[in-house]
Amino acid sequence: EAGVTQSPTHLIKTRGQQATLRCSPISGHTSVYWYQQALGLGLQFLLWYDEGEERNRGNFPPRFSGRQFPNYSSELNVNALELEDSALYLCASSAGDWDYGYTFGSGTRLTVV
Amino acid sequence: QQQVKQSPQSLIVQKGGISIINCAYENTAFDYFPWYQQFPGKGPALLIAIRPDVSEKKEGRFTISFNKSAKQFSLHIMDSQPGDSATYFCAASSSGNTPLVFGKGTRLSVIA
């Protein structure tokens, strides 16, 4: 069974540009979560999508947005990139069974220069 | 506001020793407490999880101890091995209703 896949693996953007990150969940998982992992800050919750709807949003500015498609894959968009947006962006999926928790992808390393 | 506080930030343990990582939470609505393990270049992977109806859960060399009154939980790694060297994250949530809130992580190094 394929795990959570994220693309691209690495992304380099210039300050002010837009970045689009993609995530494909495990087959059968309807929930997708996005987290930002910056050095020393742990995992900061960004967005939660379930059944195509945004269920919850973390304490991030509106330039962080996303969506979930009918096949449950998801996209994270970051507009007007700032240097401090440089981080590892992790996507996780869940079937909603809490005994199995989240399954994370390996992340997209975004570097803003 | 950090809802889950994790300590220590880093930990060095001799091979065969016991590694102990602690977490404290504030939100009494939390009822699900997992631990994740992350190796360099990989996403975090679920290691073990506990609910507040039990005070301890053991899976192999990994044990979670839970103290509901103190709002604290900890991960114990018995007979620590160099292969256990990784970053460990505690997390908490109100199951099914809120996303996981993570601690800032503990970098564990097990030396021979």
Please estimate the helix content of chain B: under 10%
Subunit organisation of the chains: heterodimer
Biggest interface and its residues per chain? A-B, 25 and 23 residues
Give helix and strand order of chain B, one letter per element, not per position: EEEEEEEEEEE
Shape of chain B: globular
The overall average pLDDT of chain A, rounded, is 94
Low-confidence stretches of chain A are none
Question: Tell me about the biggest sheet of chain B?
Answer: 6 strands, mixed
Total of DSSP H or I helical runs spanning 4+ residues of chain B: 0
Rg from Cα of chain B? 13 Å
**Terminal residue distance of chain B:** 38 Å
Elements of chain A, N to C (H/E): EEEEEEEEEEE
| β-strand amount of chain A | over 45%
Taking Cα atoms only, what radius of gyration of chain A do you get, to the nearest Å?
Answer: 13 Å
Low-confidence stretches of chain B: none
Number of E strands of chain B: 11
Largest sheet of chain A: 7 strands, mixed
What is the strand tally of chain A?
A: 11
